[in-house]
Amino acid sequence: MLTFLLIIIGLLLLLLSLAGVALGVFMALDERTRTSGLFFAIWCVPAVAASAGILMRDSVTFTIGAACFVVAGVALVVEHLGSQKTTRARRTNSGRTRKRSLYDDAKRWVSER
What we know:
Elements: H1 2-28, H2 34-56, H3 59-93, H4 102-112
Helix pairs in contact: 1-2, 2-3
């Protein structure tokens, strides 16, 4: 009975982590979320290893996969916090830019056509 329960839990975790990898790859296809998507997909790969460790009933594979999952999660959080700081810096610097002249606006309008 315990073996059957471990197989069910391992399969559910495996499907969930594979869905996370697929979601990360899907996010990476869009230019706006490319970096976050790559980090998310990479973060879910150790979860696949940990769930495979549960399915194989191998404690070493599970332990290493879980440890890598935690380390990758910390890297994901640090990256997310760093990207928020750069967004804030861009917002505060945009008010200091000089105004464009009418010539620059006309040149940009022509180049867009």
